[in-house]
Automatic annotation (TrEMBL), chain A:
It comes from Phaeodactylibacter xiamenensis. This is VWA containing CoxE family protein. Residues 78-119 are annotated as: Disordered. Residues 78-107 have a biased composition (Pro residues).
Automatic annotation (TrEMBL), chain B:
GO terms for molecular function: ATP binding; ATP hydrolysis activity. Pfam families: AAA_5. Coiled coil: none annotated. InterPro entries: AAA+_ATPase, ATPase_dyneun-rel_AAA, CbbQ/NirQ/NorQ/GpvN, P-loop_NTPase. Transmembrane segments: none annotated. This is AAA+ ATPase domain-containing protein. It comes from Phaeodactylibacter xiamenensis. Residues 62-233 form the AAA+ ATPase domain.
Amino acid sequence: MEVAAPFLHTFFTRLRSELQLPLDGAQYADFLMLYAAGHGQSREGLLDLCKALWLSRPALAPRFEQLFHECFQLSTPLPEPGVVPKPTPKPEPIPSPGPLPPMPPPGAEQNTDRPAPNLSRAPALADIELEFGAGEGNGTGSAPPAAASILETPFVFGDHLSLPFRPRYARQLWRKLRQQRYRMPSRQVDVGGTVRKLAQQGFLADLVWEESWRFAQRWVVLLDVCPGMVPFRQMREAWVDLLEQPDANSQVELLYFSSAPGQRGERFRLFRQEGLTQGVYLDTLAKAWPFGQQVLVFSDGGGASAGYDSRKTAAMLAFLNALKALQTRLAWFNPLPAAQWEGTTAALFAQAAPMFEITETGMAQAVRKALR
Amino acid sequence: MTGETSYKKYTGEGLKSGSKAWRARMGELPESEAAEFASRRALAPYRPSPKLVAAVEYARILRRPLLLRGAPGSGKTRLAEAVAYELYAEDWESHFFSWYIKSTTKAREGLYEYDHLGRLRDIEARRGGGDSAPMPPKTKYRTFGPMGEAFQSSTPGQPAVLLIDEIDKADIDFPNDLLRELEEQRFEIPDTKESIKAAHPPITIVTSNDEKELPNAFLRRCVFFYIDFPGPELLLEIAQVNARRLELEHQKPLPDGWLEKVVEQFQGLYQRMQANPNTEKLPSTSELLDWLRVLYYYFLTGQSAAPPLTDGELPHAEVLLKSLSDLQSNRQPDA
């Protein structure tokens, strides 16, 4: 185990916790075996070896390489090639996913693009209370300073502490949205009203039903599960968990798609299962939707891969238009920071549908501008 | 490690120069000896990057499948054939097993199939007195699939090469159904109560176009490699070995510098298309080789006496560009 520690073990652990790569001890032991056999002795060779053994999702290659180089900065010289590890190179127990590696001490040299959090900027709880009347924009950075959060670092993946929003904040936000009330007919006959109507019309055409306040909220959540969304999986799960807080007043319907909902003729297909099974057509779903159905989309809109696929782009634009035609209240949540949408298809989609960052500011604006 | 005390490594260089098979290809063998090779299928040259060669070696040492991903036409499928060809020369086909996956393919089909209907028919024939011959053994009705054959053929000195092509075409559970077979290199046939175990793991190469995400349980058993579009040097090398083959086959050499110009023009096209967000499909190595063959054909048949490349046109662009909009916007390099 001492062969490549601590640098490679740190790297391996960060791959698990930050990129959510499903790596286990056997894969670390594979690395040790190949390294002992003389493979991966140069920096580039070592990176290639790690990629061959651990990079199971090609879309994560840029972040994988960045992490490698970050960790390599901290490395100590590796032993001579061909040194065989101790007879039974049992891998150390892998820590459970979640905790991030400790931050380097202040002043320690570390080549990282991620700025250290400035704790002095931590807002008081009062600062984060929702003020629906304040601020303008589409969640892309023109937020009032009071709502800005030290946690708005969307590229930090890991446990809840490193999400770009505070779960408590998001929970409050969704609760407020759920508490919107609507007057709806109940099942009880309004006797007084019926008699009045009878007296006015001179005949009984229909009963008058009592009206009551309802909180009924049903959210349709469309989740992109294309391979490029893998890095955002934990963020997505935390976000969906908060939406799904047990509440008699609301229902959340999760539907999945990959890159762009499949189109067959004029019908768009979504899936009830994450593995893209149990397909269901949008027009079938929409039959049960009320006017102004709230639809939440969670996708990077192709921003993470920065690629361009005209077929998928056209399909997604057509899908957004179809949602608009159904008179939905639509909000697109993009896990990437708005600064990174520029020059990608995400910027294009942001013009077709209201798109927001998954930050406290972005979510608040989504509620205020798109979902209410 | 590999379990082999000494083994022939895959180097990516193809046939060793001087070997009998190589000499047969070069036309250097006397006719009597060359006849032996005439009926055997020879493969077009394949030039992998050094990183890909290393990945094959990793997979072999770890006894894990090599999962290859990359754009269509990048040469994923051809790697397996090239490995077998380099290791076994003209005899490669007897060591190479390919399993082309379809959307309906089931994992068991790659291991074995059992002809229950045939057996029932034979039983009925004997029951009615129509056939007095004794019943054939149960194993007569069992046929092995590519993976089953590879397991049986593979030996420490001569590992088989197994290609599982386009695994992402199959049902999402398909890769999971092969976990045990890939891990333990064995499987059981309940109908005949046989247990088949590979004497040595075959070199398994799995390709995927990433149309579906593969399950984590399968991924953790693989070595990975993504075939990128080759760099200028490798691209020229690929073109050179393929052009050399055409020249040998037709005994008509290309003018000096012509091939370099072809590759340069192809790379220019690739870079322009890569920068264009409206591009529908980037040309791949496979398209370059097709284009090369077409250009050589016109050169060979005298339909173009001189090399037909000029700076102002892209001849036979249909071979490179597979969609109408790409064709319209790239037919003229200056467009």
